[in-house]
Write a structure and sequence with these properties.
76% helix; transmembrane helix; DUF4220 domain-containing protein; 80 residues
Length: 80
């Protein structure tokens, strides 16, 4: 179950360094985006990716929790 805890921690903690850097060094973000790119739009795209990672991690933890409670005797058997 410790792998599930690590996955959940990664998903939950990943956005904090990104938003901290944006808040404390906004000009670096603008420079990183480059000329012609809208920094707000890039920030929204990165935020969507971070939300996807969070959703994936939470789904992984949920599946580990469900599989932990399953009875192996009631699982589907391979057709031979």
């Amino acid at each position: 179950m410790e792998m599930a805890a690590v996955a959940a921690a990664v998903g939950v903690l990943l956005p904090f360094p990104f938003y901290w850097a944006l808040w404390n060094h906004p000009q670096r973000w603008v420079d990183l985006c480059g000329r012609g790119a809208d920094p707000c739009r890039r920030m929204a795209q990165v935020s969507h990716v971070l939300k996807y990672v969070l959703l994936w991690c939470l789904g992984y933890v949920f599946m580990m929790w469900v599989e932990n409670k399953e009875d192996p005797a009631t699982r589907a058997k391979l057709i031979t």
